């Protein structure tokens, strides 16, 4: 698949791979076992410049491309999807939303510390009663003099328990429905902000997903991102980029699962020969490779369209949907081909199997992606 990348992209991929091998891989098992957000990884990403891939140099970034962001997502996810999730928000949706919709003051205040790893950034849209239907956000923001007073709660927020700055989507007028939803930046020491339960998740054990509470939480008028009532537009625009990142997570995971399975089936002997020599196994490996290639092609297309400045909502949805379902199916086959040992924590495929399921759910479930794609066919 490298034939579809430029020479610069191939050397960028090699650099990220070297970084992952040196700085992340030696710690992955320990961080996953600990079942806490691997806060140490944030500085490592930052020091290597990775959090600023998409950020213009005037705000301290590399001024890179969506394709490079995708390449980094894949390479990091090959080591750990948790770490790719940690990388994704500051390097992607959070900074993207501020760069596209924020004021110059907000860009200067929030983007450099987020990509330097000095402040952990979160993106808080989901609520206990508003998941797939984000237009039903119940958190409210009411104007009081020069301030906004936020009340409500958020659910499943990645890094919510360790975050320093949170992009919160709240309604300034619930009678307006989706058109009342507005984005605000809340800092963790804003009075009235608190962290609730940190979920114990099936997978992504080195990341976190937390409940957040806002009780008469006051922010200045300057904390509003974009225009009043344009919050969902901001969220959905940044989630297009997030979908490319999620597809990258799935591709990285599947790539690692296929590599592990090829190695294991070449070594494991039954009936006097490596199990990888049986045709039944070879066909499974062939199918895994085809599906992985298909996801990669769909995702490269979405990234290339983003870099060409074209609208890529449906392409990103197709990439995320295909790649997350592919990764889940491929990880299932990987465990199958490892037999009983694949069900133990001694084998990395056990983690791939658990992590793959989550990618099908966050940043929009498969069902919602099918809706987005079907809508694009009608328009
Ligand atoms: C690990 C993790 C990290 C997360 N991080 C974040 C984060 O940082 N920020 C954030 O805002 N959110 C985050 N989320 C939340 C995530 O985006 C939501 O869980 C997801 O959008 C689904 O919402 P829900 O869980 O409320 O499911 P629901 O919306 O309640 O859906 C339940 C089921 O119904 C199906 N369904 C719903 N509507 C339809 C429909 N119209 N047609 C067909 N089927 C439908 C769904 O596909 C699903 O299968 C995270 C979630 C997880 C698990």
Word description of this protein:
With 379 residues, the protein is of the alpha+beta class. It folds into three domains: 2-119, Acyl-CoA dehydrogenase/oxidase, N-terminal domain (Butyryl-Coa Dehydrogenase, subunit A, domain 1, Orthogonal Bundle); 122-228, Beta Barrel (Butyryl-CoA Dehydrogenase, subunit A, domain 2); 232-378, Butyryl-CoA Dehydrogenase, subunit A, domain 3 (Up-down Bundle), CATH 1.20.140. It contains ten helices and ten strands. It has helices at 7-34, 40-47, 66-79, 81-101, 104-115, 231-267, 279-307, 313-337, 348-359, 366-378, and strands spanning 121-124, 140-144, 147-158, 165-171, 181-187, 193-198, 209-220, 224-225, 269-270, 273-274. Helix 4 (81-101) runs antiparallel to helix 6 (231-267) and helix 6 (231-267) runs antiparallel to helix 7. The longest helix has 37 residues, at 231-267. It is globular, with a radius of gyration of 21 Å. The protein starts with 6 loop residues before the first helix and ends with a helix. 50% of the residues are buried. Flavin-adenine dinucleotide binds next to strand 1, strand 3 and helix 10.
């Amino acid at each position: 698949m490298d034939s579809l990348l430029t020479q610069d992209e191939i050397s960028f991929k090699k650099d990220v791979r070297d970084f992952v091998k040196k700085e992340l891989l030696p710690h992955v098992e320990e961080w996953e076992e600990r079942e806490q957000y691997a806060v140490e990884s944030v500085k490592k990403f930052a020091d290597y410049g990775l959090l600023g891939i998409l950020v213009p140099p005037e705000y301290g970034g590399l001024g890179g491309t969506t394709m490079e962001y995708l390449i980094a997502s894949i390479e990091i996810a090959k080591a750990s999807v948790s770490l790719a999730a940690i990388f994704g928000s500051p390097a992607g949706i959070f900074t993207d939303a501020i760069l596209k919709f924020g004021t110059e003051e907000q860009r200067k205040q929030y983007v450099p510390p987020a990509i330097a790893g000095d402040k952990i950034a979160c993106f808080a849209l989901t609520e206990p009663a508003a998941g797939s239907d984000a237009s039903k956000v119940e958190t409210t923001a009411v104007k009081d003099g020069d301030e906004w007073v936020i009340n409500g709660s958020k659910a499943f927020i990645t890094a919510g328990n360790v975050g320093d700055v949170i992009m919160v989507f709240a309604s300034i007028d619930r009678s307006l429905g989706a058109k009342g939803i507005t984005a605000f930046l809340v800092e963790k020491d804003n009075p009235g902000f608190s962290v609730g339960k940190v979920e114990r998740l099936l997978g992504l054990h080195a990341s976190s997903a937390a409940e957040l509470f806002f009780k008469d939480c006051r922010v200045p008028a300057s904390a509003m991102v974009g225009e009043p009532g344009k919050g969902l537009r901001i969220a959905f625009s940044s989630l297009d980029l997030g979908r490319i990142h999620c597809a990258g997570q799935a591709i990285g995971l599947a790539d690692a699962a296929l590599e592990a399975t090829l190695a294991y089936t070449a070594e494991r002997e039954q009936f006097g020969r490596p199990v990888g020599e049986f045709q039944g196994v070879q066909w499974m490996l062939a199918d895994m490779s085809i599906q992985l290639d298909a996801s990669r092609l769909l995702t490269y297309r979405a990234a290339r369209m983003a870099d060409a400045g074209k609208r890529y909502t449906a392409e990103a949805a197709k990439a995320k949907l295909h790649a997350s379902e592919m990764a889940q199916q491929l990880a299932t086959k990987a465990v199958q081909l490892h037999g009983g040992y694949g069900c133990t924590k001694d084998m990395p495929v056990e983690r791939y199997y658990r992590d793959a399921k989550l990618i099908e759910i966050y940043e929009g479930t498969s069902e919602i992606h099918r809706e987005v794609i079907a809508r694009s066919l009608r328009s």
